[in-house]
Amino acid sequence: MKMTRKICTAILCLVVLALTASDVYEREMLLMDKGIVTAIKNQSISLNLSSDETKVFVYQNFKQISEDVDHMMDLAFHHETSDEILIEYLSDKSNQYTTELIAFKKEITEDPMLVPGVLKAMQVSSITAASNCDNVGFENGNFNNWEVQLGYRPMCDFDDGTTDFSCLNLLPSTYAVANAVNLVDPKKGERLEVIASGPSSYDAFVGGTGLPMVNPDGGNYSLRLENFVNGYGVTEVSYTFTVAANQPYFEYGFAAVLEDPGKSHPLKHKPFFSARLYKSNGDEILCATEVIVADPNDVNFAKTDLFFEVPGNPQYKYCKWQKRVIPLRGEIGETLTIKFMVGDCAYGGHVGYAYIDGSCFDGAITQGPCNADGSRELSFVEGFDSYRWTGKNIVGGVNDEYKALVNGNNAFRLKTQMGRCQEVLTFTPDSCVQPPAPSCGLTITSLTPSSCNGDNEYTLTGSVNVSMQNYTGAKHVLITNGVQQEVFEYVDNTTLNFTFENLFSDGEQIEVKVFLFTDFFFEETSALCQTSLNYTAPSSCQAMDLGCNCIRSFAPFPQNKVVDGEIEPGKYVLGAWVKEVNASTTQVDYTEPYVRVNFYSSVGVLVPGTSLDFNSQGLIIESWQRIHEEFTIPPTANFIEIVLGTNGVHALFDDIRIYPVDGSMQSYVYDPVSLKLVATLDENNYATFYQYDLEGNLVRTKKETERGVITIQESRQSTLKQ
Description:
Blueprint: E1 6-8, E2 13-15, H1 21-34, H2 36-46, H3 51-60, H4 62-78, H5 83-110, H6 114-123, E3 146-152, E4 156-159, E5 164-167, E6 171-172, E7 182-185, E8 189-196, E9 221-225, E10 233-242, E11 249-259, E12 272-279, E13 290-293, E14 307-310, E15 313-327, E16 335-343, E17 352-361, E18 366-367, E19 376-379, E20 386-390, E21 403-406, E22 412-418, E23 421-427, E24 439-449, E25 457-469, E26 476-480, E27 485-489, E28 495-504, E29 509-517, E30 529-536, E31 553-554, E32 562-563, E33 566-567, E34 571-580, E35 594-600, E36 612-614, E37 617-621, E38 624-632, E39 639-645, E40 651-660, E41 667-670, E42 677-681, E43 687-692, E44 698-705, E45 708-714
Antiparallel strand pairs: 1-2, 3-6, 3-10, 4-5, 7-8, 8-9, 9-17, 10-16, 11-15, 11-17, 12-13, 12-16, 14-15, 18-19, 19-21, 20-22, 22-23, 24-25, 25-28, 26-27, 26-29, 29-30, 31-39, 32-33, 34-38, 34-40, 35-36, 35-39, 37-38, 41-42, 42-43, 43-44, 44-45
Helix pairs in contact: 1-2, 1-5, 2-5, 4-5
């Protein structure tokens, strides 16, 4: 696809070539083989010039070399120049620099001190180590305290194994001036620019708001390094600073746009971005290193959640702002240098540029105030990739965040990690005075059941003494006999008196339980203390007379009766629950109570030989045993009579139901005061019980089964403190 437009913005300029992709590749190969920089490099080798001697030659002739390279790039890519004209120009320049290199060789042979003198002058930088990391983040609105060096990719060696770039011609820029906000190359445009945050501070090539040019987590300024003009340029900026005790962390941020040339370029010739931190002796702090090459095999460039395709230009990829934090407590007082480098491809046709930012900051574990329970919060700086707190008495539950709740004054260790940089800090918090643990005592001083009254009921009265130590908050005492309960808001040094009325006289042992709670979760497991005491209920004082307010009989469909042309089977189910009042706790079956079913004809005569007696069977569940039987109605029956009887013992009957065998029945039981549903009975006459807290919230659901009563759901609710 041919491209003929030129796209320019305030920060970058993309020259869209009037060449096909294959044309670009052929021109790149030509420049790599016969280009000016390649010619200088090859001729230096043929003349046995050392790398230092070659560097001095390039330094002395940098202005002329830059102008010639710029003109060469114009001829190769920016004009419709024939190969013949380009080759002729390259041949002339090769001859020119061969002559100049021969003359330079003669000059340094006659003056052995020339090269050392120039190298010494080159090493003298106008930049001194910055104090307090002044302008490391370009917050002065310029790049003061930063050193700028420019070069050309063909003279950069790239070791594939160590991803180490070394440019022989990376030289101090003659364009950099004090208080500069940009560095303008007369031919290549702005090689550096300090970008201020604002509504329009987004990368124009990426488009939209996809890539902010100013670090969103930084200050008001960032620096763009290199631009969108190809020409195998490479630029490096460096910042030297002394690590201060009150700022033992260095942080840098970066975002990059890199063009992948594809398989036509080896890895070492592709656009790249690098960041490296050096000690004053030249040793590199390796965990701070970041090198990204525009190649699918590069571990970072290949990450689809890190590098994204530029819309409409899939060969270009960009990464949004990334953060790296380097702990430097071991380097306090030392002088370090951070270097950022960006390069186009070595052939001249593909670009790379980046945005950078920096800061120094303090970071220390701090302790919060003591809590009422003697714990306190330890915290560190947010933003690291991972945190790991270790030590005794970490009570906060989560120890992989920048905060931890601890209870103790032993030493705690925090391991942080950002990228490949790790640090371990140790901190011993001040002691918190541990308050004494709250305690309480409960004593049931009296339990007095009344005599059985005429309704087979009695009243229970009682008293409870409460003692409380080391706690001044709200306290609630719950008293229950399993049927009724009463809750008191307890005030210190008071005796609690309670009364339970309308209790059933059955002569059984009843347990009264008392609990003290410091919250509103009235569960046995959350009680601060508890106690219990048993008493014996009075025996039954009368047999229950159902009276006449009940259904004694009803008219069923007998067996084989024809209704609407269909024969009804006449089969029914009888269900009931029975309880022997004074049964032994070891008893496994109730043999005395029974339910009798009598059948009567239309004239009220008992149908001979049809009466049925049903006894309870199965597991005794909380003192109750189930009756569940099927029976067939005789053809001559028109009425059913239900008789509840026993063979000499006191018995209770409940949940008596009769319904067709092909039908089903669901029964509902409601609280007579709150009208809340307290139980349902399914088609097998098994109950599901619903229990509520004092606020009327459902807290527990239990189910009768053949194996007994089981809890099937339990929940709690609370209101957050304001």
